[in-house]
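Q: I have 274 residues here and want to know how they pack in 3D. Can you give me a structure?
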Amino acid sequence: MADDEVATKAPESDAQESVVYITKPSGYPHLPSKLLLFLSNGTGIHSKNNQLQADKYASEGFVVVMPDQFAGDSLQNTVTEPTAAPDANPSVIEKVKMGFADTAKSFMIDMWLARQTPEKVLPLLHKVIEGAKDEFADAVANGDGIYAVGYCFGGKYVLLLGSELPDTVAKGQATKDEEQGVVKRGPQIKAGAIAHGTMITKEDIEGLKNDQLFPDDIRAEGQKYLVDNNRPHEIQVFPGVPHGFAVVGEYDDVKIQDAQKAAFDQMLSWLKSH
């Protein structure tokens, strides 16, 4: 356990039979808490680092629900990380082997990403949200809604849950006829915060109502839209850190450690102020 003040740690199954990781403040339900939906990176709910990151929010007074967005098909199950550190001076043959390994890994990640579509993920998230609203109704009421954080892959879906979406996307329903118009759903969250989002488009940001994986041009276009439309927001760029830095990890570089703490503090402050 990362924090003795955090209570429930094991992955659980909610009322809607979706696998989730739930972590709560030690004083809950005797002390008021707010509900936080934690959308992880591709390694999913069984990643120890993701669980530790969720626990940090629980220690700050949030009931945290981290769903298995991938229905058992997490990136952790697709790509196995090496268990040994690479040789500092590899031979030519070893360099060739590593090149093939990197290409294969990149291909596997691309194939995995192609399987994780909004049509697959959003209905699962809505199912979890409905179950959490019932199970933690007091926390939802105390926060006057649901809060959300998203890391890497999960960042895109925090933006989508903060948007108005057609039922065709949000629930996989057939498009309504033109006379009735397209039925929209959302926003599903009160406020959200994301770090190093992946596969985010300008349209994802434009749907909001009130690094290579997150390119500068997309971020700049999104920020311009938010400013032009008076959407409350904060954006902070952390130069010189790797993608994924904001999730708990064993980093020796003090610069990365400081950036990780600053990112968490900023996201926490944003959630608490809204």
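Q: Anything worth noting?
A: Confidence is low (pLDDT under 50) at residues 1-11, 78-86, 174-179, 209-214. The radius of gyration is 19 Å.
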